């Protein structure tokens, strides 16, 4: 069975993401809910830590939280699936969360390096749930990682997601 793929058109280039439907079904369903609602369209990658991760899925270019714009979505956090055996390797996508292991909603990050310390059980007994990987477009992700940042690891220039959609 073919894995679900999502295309993210960014102003740094196109990123194709293969989702791990069987290994991370709750995280994948959660991510697809946001993709299919157009949630990620016109958002930014708001956090960049060179050599570590690029993070997106939460904010618009004007700094407003994206979730304020689509009231019809269910923003219930997804259960942490970090015990699925998948690793936070370069190019993998993981659910971003707070210190509460079951707090992930729309935000995700792409690993720029192998980050084994994020794998289950991690430093907090849980780790970060991997649910996909970049299959093409890592050059676009690497270009994001080169953008200078200011306080809070915020890029000094916007890195926009123009559109995200399920690849047919």
From TrEMBL:
Q: What InterPro entries is this protein classified in?
A: Cyclophilin-like_dom_sf, Cyclophilin-type_PPIase, Cyclophilin-type_PPIase_CS, Cyclophilin-type_PPIase_dom, Cyclophilin_A-like
Q: Which GO terms describe its molecular function?
A: peptidyl-prolyl cis-trans isomerase activity
Q: What's this chain's function?
A: PPIases accelerate the folding of proteins. It catalyzes the cis-trans isomerization of proline imidic peptide bonds in oligopeptides.
Decide whether keyword Kinase is in the record.
no
Q: Which reaction does it catalyse?
A: [protein]-peptidylproline (omega=180) = [protein]-peptidylproline (omega=0)
Q: What is this protein called?
A: Peptidyl-prolyl cis-trans isomerase
Enzyme superclass (EC): isomerase
What's the superkingdom here? Answer: Bacteria
Species for this entry: Candidatus Amphirhobacter heronislandensis
């Amino acid at each position: 069975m073919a894995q679900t793929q999502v295309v993210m058109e960014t102003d740094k280039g196109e990123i194709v993401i293969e989702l791990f439907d069987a290994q991370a079904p709750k995280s994948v369903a959660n991510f697809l809910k946001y993709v299919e609602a157009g949630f990620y369209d016109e958002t930014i990658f708001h956090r960049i830590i060179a050599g570590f991760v690029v993070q997106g899925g939460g904010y618009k270019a004007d700094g407003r939280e994206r979730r304020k714009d689509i009231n019809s979505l269910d923003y219930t956090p997804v259960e942490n699936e970090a015990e699925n055996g998948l690793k936070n390797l370069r190019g993998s996508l993981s659910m971003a969360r707070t210190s509460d292991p079951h707090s992930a909603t729309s935000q995700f990050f792409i690993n720029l390096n192998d980050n084994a310390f994020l794998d289950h059980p991690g430093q907090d007994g849980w780790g970060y749930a991997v649910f996909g990987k970049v299959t093409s477009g890592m050059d676009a992700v690497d270009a994001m990682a080169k953008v200078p940042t200011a306080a809070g690891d915020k890029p000094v220039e916007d890195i926009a997601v123009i559109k995200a959609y399920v690849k047919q």
